[in-house]
Amino acid sequence: MHSFGGKRSLVFNKLTGAQLKNEDIFSNLHLVLKLVEAKFRAKYNVNAALSLNQQGYCFENNSFYLTNNIFFTIEGVKFLYNINEISSYEKGSFEVILTYQEIDKYLLIK
User: For labelling, which of 13, 14, 56, 99 has a CA lying 20 to 30 Å from the CA of 1?
Assistant: First the structure.
């Protein structure tokens, strides 16, 4: 039996207290998605010629998506896919970090 040990991020507007969604954080979700996917494929050696799901991932409609688990770290913005979110438990969690230099022009919050 496996337990769930994932992490969840919540980002709030410090003035209103409202929880922010991805579209409140990034100015161009499509381009951010492309950046994260490119780094994901490079980091985890995902073959661009094959579909994600053919390579053992479990993306709905076989399409890469941005996770809602976004963390602001010293290194940059971390996108964390928890255990079982996009693959089997045995493969663990997956993370991609975009440096602030890479993502700054798309950040709506600083």
Answer: 56
Per-residue CA distances from 69 to 1, 55, 85, 93 (Å): 25, 23, 11, 12
Low-confidence stretches of the chain (pLDDT beneath 50): 1
3-state class (DSSP) for residue 54:
helix
According to DSSP, the residues that pair with 70 across neighbouring strands are 79
Residue 87 CA to residue 106 CA, distance in Å, equals 28
Burial 67-101 (b: 16+ CB within 10 A, else e): bebbeeeeebbbbbbbbebbbeeeeebbbbbbeee
pLDDT in tens, 89-106: 777 788 999 999 999 999
Which residue type occupies 38?
A
Q: What global pTM score does this model have?
A: 0.84
- Residue-level pLDDT at 26: 94
- Structure confidence at residue 6 (pLDDT): 61
